[in-house]
Amino acid sequence: MTYEIIEEDGFKYVEAGKGETLVLLHGLMGELSNWELVIERFKDRYHIVVPILPIYDLPILTLGVKALSRYVHRFLKFKGLNQVVLIGNSLGGHVGLVFTVAHQEFVKALVLTGSSGLYENAFGGSFPRRESYDYVKEKVAFTFYDPAIATKELVDEVFKTVNDRSRVIRILTMAKSAIRHNMAKELSKITIPVSLIWGRNDQVTPPEVAQEFHELLPNSELNWVDKCGHVPMMEHPEIFNAFLEKFLERILLK
Fold it and tell me: Which segments constitute the AB hydrolase-1 domain (predicted)?
């Protein structure tokens, strides 16, 4: 799939389909391609919007999960969107949670997969050997259950990013913000339906994190994807999409 990135009024995003709106939020190192098979599966029945979160564009002094939540708020108002389904992976899930606590009236339902917000074990807040290609390759493979998913193309992209001084400073700033912003005391405020779709072998946000989310979110369901790491929609897209489809049908097609 070739994405047409739309740029208008300071926003960059991908848009496809018609119907109820699904807003897909990518992670800290996530690419639009992470969502490719979700877009392909649902674009014939739903309106799908994927905003590019301005991790590399916002003023560094204000960069954090709250700033990205405010960006999502401005974006949804700009697009005239309301009662959307927010679907977030990793940092994108965390941003979705912060946004939902502040603006629950905009969100009909929430889907979290490998979300931060309680705990994550990513790069440990630093890149001590970022100049080493093998080290970066090992860290990218850590994201998946099957290390073969960490293709050379994917590793090359991450290696390029973490060796760009400006970008790596922003990534570390963003990661520290996410670690500081623990959501445990706020999750009870989220009363809309939430679907947790989690890799049973996730080493970044381990299974106990999903279980804690499930216990703290009052209207949540927990779905496990076996032999799967931190990015289920990439590693097992058929299973991820099946869980997502069942959830959407339950909450939207009543």
Answer: 21-237
Question: CA 161 to CA 224: how far, in whole Å?
Answer: 31
| Segment 232-240 mean pLDDT | 97
Residue 96's nearest CA partner among 180, 166, 27, 20 is 27
Note whether 251 and 47 are within 8 A (CB): no
Is residue 15 over pLDDT 70?
Answer: yes
* Helix or strand (DSSP H, E) at 135: helix 133-141
> What pTM did the predictor assign?
0.93
Give the pair of three-digit tokens for residue 224.
């496990």
Does 126 score more than 60 pLDDT? no
DSSP codes of every residue in 154-168: HHHHHHHHHTSHHHH
Max intra-chain CA distance, the chain:
52
* pLDDT, average across residues 50-55: 94
Expressed in angstroms, the distance from the first to the final Cα of the chain is: 31
Measure the CA–CA gap between 37 and 9, rounded to whole angstroms: 28
Quick check: 197 and 244 in contact, CB under 8 A? yes
Cα angle for residues 11, 14, 198 (degrees, 5° grid)? 110
Q: Is there a contact between 82 and 76 (Cβ–Cβ < 8 Å)?
A: yes
